[in-house]
Write a structure and sequence with these properties.
The complex is a heterodimer of chains A (about 170) and B (about 120). Chain A has about 170 residues and is mainly α. Chain A contains ten helices and no strands. By secondary structure, chain B is mainly α. Chain B is about 60% helix and about 5% strand. The longest helix of chain B is centred in the middle third of the chain and has 39 residues. Classes of the chains: A mainly alpha (about 170), B mainly alpha (about 120). At the A-B interface, helix 1, helix 2, helix 3, helix 7 and helix 8 of A face helix 1 and helix 2 of B.
């Protein structure tokens, strides 16, 4: 940690460490907001504000990445719940248009797998995203999601089983 | 088609990585915006603290400025009689209105004839 880099109200958090994980954190924030970039940026700002004010205080009990991801998750669940439900509603009404947009993807193997991930129950989808996209371990991902490691492992195993079935289907990779 | 766990892992990594956002807003921009909100938050906290301190100050001042009952001086009734007087409201008000109720009594009509000195 560079001198003067640590946050005033969060001495164990440095600006440079946050900068290093910014892109991955944005990806996580984006998926928390139904892939709405404006809402995701707002969520990121709010998460950084929580760290600056010390409302979310990191005390080295987990990795910084796990902690910051959990802050985003908690914020998304509380303050952005209304916003995300509105977006979900909007999405439902725009399903026809959305289907047309992703049709090209769905025809490919990658698109099939992506759609299968999208159809997973929320918890399973989250753990798959955290492990495979955000490069967290199952333990860290469970901590971010606020579930026990055992529950996290169960979600992970079920998700993998479902995705394996998709890959084994004719036309799969 | 037989797919191993490693195949699933590899395929998931490959596919999900391609879905990473390409247009990530710059860290500096997001951080600066958060810092701006932090500065506003600090200002509002300071204003709130100042308002609370001022409120407490006013309450303390009022408390000390208002004399206690125990500290209030006792005034003898005799002292008051020299400086005050009392007058009945009717004495004060009726002459001013030039309407004296005692001058004449209103005539009340008798509803029945008197019989043997008594009203029937």
């Amino acid at each position: 940690m560079r001198d003067g880099d640590a946050l005033e109200k969060n001495p164990h958090v440095s600006r440079s460490a946050l900068e290093a994980m910014h892109a991955q954190l944005y990806g996580w924030a984006l998926s928390r907001c139904n892939y709405d970039p404006t809402a995701a940026e707002e969520l990121m700002q709010q998460a950084y504000l929580e760290l600056l004010t010390g409302n979310a205080r990191f005390d080295n009990r987990s990795s910084l990445k796990t902690f910051v991801f959990a802050v985003v998750e908690k914020l998304a669940r509380s303050r952005f719940r209304r916003l995300t439900s509105r977006l979900r509603l909007l999405r439902r009404y725009q399903r026809h248009a959305a289907d047309v947009t992703v049709k090209i993807d769905i025809d490919t193997d990658a698109g099939r797998l992506w759609r299968a991930v999208g159809n997973l129950p929320a918890r399973q989808r989250d753990i798959i995203e955290l492990v495979f996209c955000r490069e967290l371990t199952i333990e860290e991902a469970s901590s971010v999601m606020g579930v026990t490691v055992g529950t996290g492992r169960a979600h992970y195993a079920r998700a993998k089983r479902a995705l394996k079935t998709v890959l084994q289907e004719p036309g799969g990779t | 088609m037989d797919v191993s766990d490693e195949d699933v892992d590899r395929e998931l990594s490959r596919v999900l990585k391609t879905r990473d956002p390409q247009d990530v807003p710059g860290f500096a921009a997001v951080w600066t915006a958060a810092e701006r909100r932090y500065a506003a938050w600090k200002r509002s906290r300071r204003a709130l603290a100042a308002a609370v301190i001022a409120g407490v100050g006013v309450m303390v001042m009022l408390h000390f400025a208002t004399p206690d009952d125990a500290a209030a001086p006792y005034i003898e009734v005799a002292e008051l009689l020299d400086s005050t007087f009392w007058i009945a409201p009717s004495d004060a008000l009726l002459p001013v209105r030039e309407f004296d109720l005692y001058d004449e009594l209103p005539a009340v009509l008798e509803s029945t004839e008197p019989g043997q000195g008594a009203l029937l």
